Amino acid sequence: MADCCCPNTPTNTKQICPECGSTFKSVGMPTLYHQVRFPENQALIIDNYYFCPAKTCSIAYFSSAGNIIRKEHLRSYQAIQNDALCYCFDIGAEQYLSALKDHRAGPIKAFVMQRTQTGECACEIRNPSGQCCLAKFKRLENEHSTVIK
Hints:
149 residues; alpha+beta; N-terminal domain of TfIIb; 2 domains
């Protein structure tokens, strides 16, 4: 899992979201061009952007220069609201949690890892954070390990 599928993501600098106050990582412009819906994607200002994944926050991307893109302008808006775990292969957090509880999550995670290792994912453009989702699988497993046992 250390081999991420997103070699072209920017250096993970962090900024504080102007709406919710949480700190988030930077996102490359290719991610924004693919995530922001038409016609808003035609007017993007090139800048250093940061993605805010908080469901309660209306801001999707923000820059240190004050540029803001709201979540409702994203192609993946519904997936964010539905707790997407893996955007490349359309796996939701609830689906994976259910599989964990039923002890059938191994093949799901193995599939994603295999596709990632062969370069068949597109996290940089499919995931609004521009990041690989593999760490999210592990985080979800750890967060819910007491529930699963």
